[in-house]
Amino acid sequence: MMHADVSNRETIIVGDFNARNVSWNCPCCDTCGLYLDNAYKKHNLFLHNFSSLSYADLRRNYRSNLDLVFSTQKIKNQISVSVSDDPLGSDHHAIQINVSVEKHRHVKIKHKINSVRTNWIEVHNLLEANYKTFLSRDYDDLDAKGKYERFVATLTEAILANTPTQRLVSKRKHINPVPWWDPECDRAKRLRKAALKKYEFSLD
């Protein structure tokens, strides 16, 4: 920490520094404490547990704060630090560090229709016939939202009117291509098609 510049990184530095300084709740300052205080401020780091007491010497009735948690300014608001009251048999108390991490998932939305059953020539003809509705006075008087909804509704109606509601299935589909073809072969074929579609989708 003394020599590396980590100010522009997402970094957490934790350790028993054995450095005393009144700035982080020690009863006195020593050379290491003064050096560490200067170093973390020079690198613009954030000290999370400046008011805790992580070390206890019960024989001397002495307590100090030697175990410190630093982070870069970039992630200081994502970190919370707490010191356990139970030393668990040690002279150093356990320190719990919670880091809040958000993962953003990018989903690419495609605004296109790909239907092999739709008669796109008839869709084109129907839209051509209804094109003048977008030049009418009624359409011109609509607000932006109304115009958008009318436009989408016109497209949707044209597509639905020229898309069969039931898929026509050839009778030959249920005829086994070879004598040994069984339901397991049908299942393997469906899985292969699904895997191919998933692969093609991942390329976009």
From TrEMBL:
<dbReference type="Pfam" id="PF14529">
    <property type="entry name" value="Exo_endo_phos_2"/>
</dbReference>
<dbReference type="GO" id="GO:0061343">
    <property type="term" value="P:cell adhesion involved in heart morphogenesis"/>
</dbReference>
<dbReference type="InterPro" id="IPR036691">
    <property type="entry name" value="Endo/exonu/phosph_ase_sf"/>
</dbReference>
<dbReference type="GO" id="GO:0031012">
    <property type="term" value="C:extracellular matrix"/>
</dbReference>
<protein>
    <recommendedName>
        <fullName>Endonuclease/exonuclease/phosphatase domain-containing protein</fullName>
    </recommendedName>
</protein>
<dbReference type="GO" id="GO:0007508">
    <property type="term" value="P:larval heart development"/>
</dbReference>
<dbReference type="GO" id="GO:0003824">
    <property type="term" value="F:catalytic activity"/>
</dbReference>
<dbReference type="InterPro" id="IPR005135">
    <property type="entry name" value="Endo/exonuclease/phosphatase"/>
</dbReference>
<feature type="domain" description="Endonuclease/exonuclease/phosphatase">
    <location>
        <begin position="8"/>
        <end position="95"/>
    </location>
</feature>
